[in-house]
Amino acid sequence: MQSLMLGAATGGVNGGDILFQLLAFIILMLLLRKYAWGPLMGIMKERQNFITNEIEAAEASRKEAEEHLATQIQELKQAREEARAIIENAKKQGEAQGEAIIQASREEAERVKESALADIASEREKAVATLRKEVASLSVMIASKVIAKELDERSQEKLIQDYLQEAGEAR
Amino acid sequence: MEHEAPIHTFMGLQFNLSNVLMITVSSLIVFLIAVLATRALSMRPGGMQNFLEWVVDFVKGIINSTMDWHTGGRFLTLGLTLLMYIFVSNMLGLPFAVAFDHELWWKSPTADPTITLTLAVMVVVLSHYYGVRLKGAKAYGAEFFKPFKLFFPLKLIEEFANTLTLGLRLYGNIYAGEILLGLLVGLAHKGIFAGILGIFPLIVWQGFSVFVGAIQAFIFTMLTMVYLAHKVADDH
């Protein structure tokens, strides 16, 4: 019954057990520290550092990517503005050119018209001059004919009229 | 149930050879588990390494819940070894008990008050040692007279009570579990019918004993850290 009450420790104190348990535990602890816990904690620490580094690296690359993105957006905006400016310029230039062409053609037309008018005028001038010369020679001719032929007043008149008619039709 | 202990006297000290055997077996098993699990360490843990890392994190959690890591970090090895050693010791007595020549040889070493009290005294002595080392003898001594001088006898009793309860709680739980297992197995001697009927409560009680063994290992480690924290922490 005593063994039931106190377990295996029947009577007295087992000094040897105490000593053995203490020694065994301390030895176990030291051995485990050297062969198990030490390496295990080492690798856990290493992993922790690794993860920390990875997170930092990820953070850095994210920041870098963000910067890149910002510059990209900036550049895109710039390019878009440039494109718009170029288009605007081209439009303006085109308009100006068109305006110039229209202006030039209008001037050209004016000039052509002017010269045509001048031509017409000079032609008329010339025609008048020619007519005048013709009339003069005709007059001379008529006069010589009148002189050559002695005609009465009436036939003379008629003759002049005829000649004049002739001259007018010939013209 | 009338097992005797194989006690032998050697160099004036009484050795219970059963305890000596079981302490050695427990230590060997713990050592083998821990060392085999940490042979092939890798950054991506698998299998046993994963399990052991979980144990380490578990003990870290216990320590962190009682004191800050700056002072508590040094007790991690102690806590890990205590937890695993006590757990393995508690489990050893569950599957069978070996008696030879009416002497009980195979049992849980923690089913012996000598063993559990040894561990408890070791923990309490460690707590006093670290109390003096980390806080200085003066601050350590002053703790006994707080909140005022009248508390000194109570504080003194508290130390002994802590030691006794820490050791006897573990012993009582494990020993009671083994006694009941023994009684249930003993039913088989009363007749085949009783033996068959006894199997069912035996299975249930073994399952419960696994639970109790794990819980007791956890409680012992937890209280160890609480006592250590009580002695080394400044905020008391």
UniProtKB/TrEMBL annotation, chain B:
Cellular compartments annotated: Cell membrane; Membrane
Recorded topology in the membrane: Multi-pass membrane protein
CDD domains: ATP-synt_Fo_a_6 (cd00310)
Keywords from the UniProt entry: ATP synthesis, Cell membrane, CF(0), Hydrogen ion transport, Ion transport, Membrane, Transmembrane, Transmembrane helix, Transport
Keyword NAD recorded: no
Record GO biological process: proton motive force-driven plasma membrane ATP synthesis
Function: Key component of the proton channel; it plays a direct role in the translocation of protons across the membrane.
Record's protein name: ATP synthase subunit a
Molecular functions (GO terms): proton-transporting ATP synthase activity, rotational mechanism
Record field: transmembrane: 20-41, 75-94, 114-132, 179-204, 210-229
PANTHER family according to UniProt: ATP SYNTHASE SUBUNIT A, CHLOROPLASTIC
Stored Gene3D superfamilies: ATP synthase, F0 complex, subunit A
Annotated family: Belongs to the ATPase A chain family.
InterPro entries in the cross-refs: ATP_syn_F0_a_bact/chloroplast (IPR045082), ATP_synth_F0_asu (IPR000568), ATP_synth_F0_asu_AS (IPR023011), F0_ATP_A_sf (IPR035908)
Major subcellular location class: membrane
GO cellular component labels: plasma membrane; proton-transporting ATP synthase complex
Organism, as annotated: Fictibacillus enclensis
